[in-house]
Protein 1
Amino acid sequence: MRTAEIKRQTNETDIFLRLNLDGKGEYRINSGIGFMDHCLSQWAKHGAFDLEIEAKGDLKVDAHHTVEDIGICLGQAIKKAGGATGKDLVYRRFGQALIPMDEALAMVAVDLSGRSYLAYEADVYPRVGDFDTELVEEFLRALTAKGEFTLHVRLLSGHNTHHCLEAIFKALGRAMREALSREEQIQGVPSTKGIL
C-alpha cells in the first residue's frame, strides 16, 4: 500500500495527516474549517484516496495558516506515498478531469513531473459562508510546492461559488487518481529524458 503519515507542528498550527493512495475514498477530516473539510472530503472520495486529517490552527487570527499548512502536509504525503521517482517511477504521471457540478464546470490537469507549478484561474465570489475563497489558491500553491508537481485549474463556467469550488476539488481528486494510477503499457519512466 502506498501510504504516508505527516506531522507538522508550528507556532500557528498542529497537524496530523494520514494518506493512503490505494484506498477506497474513506475520510475523516477535522480542521475546524467546515468548508475546507467539505472540499477535502470531495478530493478524497473522488480520488479514491483514504484521508485522515486532524488539524488545530490559530483560527482566531483567520483560516490562512491552517489551510496553507494542510496543503503543505498533503503535498508532502502525496510525494512520500507516491513512492519512487526517477528511473523507478511506477505511476502514470499525467491526469486530467473535466467535472460538472450543476451550472459549474471545472477542468484540472496534473503532471507529476517533479517540478512545482500552479496555474489557477477561478473567478469566484470572495466568500462561501465564513470561508475566504482566496485560500483555495493558497492551499493549491502549498500542495504543488511540497508535492513537486504541475497543476492547472480552470473554472470554465459557474456562478454558485460552493458549486464552483466543489467541482474543482472533485476534478482535482479524479485527475490525481489518474496520474497516480499504475502504468501498465509504458515501460520505464514516462519521459524521454529517462528520469523525472
Protein 2
Amino acid sequence: MKIKRILLIALVSLLLFGVTVTVVANVRVNRSSGGRCYSTTDDIPYRRVALLLGTSRLGRKGNPNPYFYNRITACAELYRAGKVGKVLVSGDNSRKGYNEPEDMRQALVEAGIPDSCIVLDFAGFRTYDSMVRAKRVFGLDSLTVISQQWHNKRALYIANRIGLDAVAYNAADIDFRAIKLRLTVREWLARTKMVFDMLFMPDPHFLGEQIAI
C-alpha cells in the first residue's frame, strides 16, 4: 500500500508539473507576441526577407490542406504589397516523396512570386529549427514570419529568445472545429516542448555552411 501511495503521489505530481509548464508556456508565448502579429498588409512593417513556415500540401486523407494554401496566399499578399523582397521557405524534406519546401515553391511561383526571389531551406523539420537556421545558416537578423496566428506566436517567442528581430503576418485560419481542436492540443504540446528547447538551446538537426540571401 505504501508503494502504491508513493507511485500515486509521484504520478499526480508529474501531471501537475506538466499542466503548469503548459500553462506557463502558453502565457509567455501570448504575451511575447503582443503587437508583432499583423493581419493586414497596410500595417505590417517592411522586412527584406519573409520566412514561410512549411506544412504539408495535402491533408491526412489526401485532400488539399487549407493551411498550406492559406500560407501561400498570405505570402503572395505580402510580396504584392511590397512588404517583403525575398521568401525563405523552410520545411520538412526528411523522407523520400515528401518535400514541403519544393511544394511551397511551386505554389508560390503559381501565385506570381518570381522563382529568383525564393530560397529553400530543406531542414526546417520543426519551428525551432526553422528559426535558428534562419539566423545561423542564412544569416538573417530580421524577418517576417508567415503562418497561422497560433503558429506565428510561438515562432515570435523563439525569435525573441534567440535574438532575431521578427514580426509576423497571419495567414487565414480554418473553421473546421474538429481539426482546430486537434491542432490546438498539438500546439499546446509544441509550446510545452519549446520551453525545454529555450532552456537548453540545442542545435537544429542540421546546420551546415552559411547561405547568403
Protein 3
Amino acid sequence: MDISFIVLAGGKGLRLGKNKALEIIGHKSLLQRMVLRLSCFGSDIIIVTADEQALFQSVDYSKLKVVTDIYPNKGSLGGIYSGLVASKSCYNLVVACDMPFLSQDLLRYMIQLAGGFEVVVPRLGNMVEPLCAVYSKGCLAQIERLLSEDNFRVSALFDLVSVKYVEAEEIDHFDPEHLSFFNVNTEADLKKARKLAGGEISYDKR
C-alpha cells in the first residue's frame, strides 16, 4: 500500500512548559526517536509544526519533509489536514511526536487494514486514539468543513467518514501493555518515559 507518515509536532507543550519534541529520551529527542522508529518503513515522513525554526535539531532521514500548519491554532485536526495536503500518498499514518514507544508491528497491522476505509483508529473501551491512526486523503473535504465550523475535535470526523476501529484484543496481540499510546505531557510522564527507555538499549544503539 502507498503510505506516508505524518508526525504532529506543532503542540505548544503547555503542561510540560517547553517544546516536548526536543526533550531527550534515551539519548535522542522525542522527534528523533519518532523519525527513527518510522524510517524502517522506508516511506515519506512529513513533520507538521507551528514553527519550522523550532525544530532545529537535525533528523537524518532522506525522505523527510517539514511543513507548517495551513490553519494555525486549529489543534490536532488542523495538523492532520496540513499533513494530508502535503502528502503524496492516499493513505497516511498520523502520530503525535510525543509517543516514544510505538509498536511498529501494530502500525503495520493498522496499515494492512486501511483499504476500503477512510480512517483506521485504535479503540480501547470507550477511548479512541486519533493521534495514532491511518487517515486517507478522502478525509480532506470533511476536515475542511469541520475547521470552517470551528469544530476542532478529531473525533467529530469519525461521524462523517468510514471508520475501521482496531479493538483492544487486536492491539493486545502486538502491544499488550498499550505503550504505543503513552504520551509525554508532564514532567512525570517525561520521567517515566526515560525510565522505560532504559530497557531499549538495543533500539537506542541502532
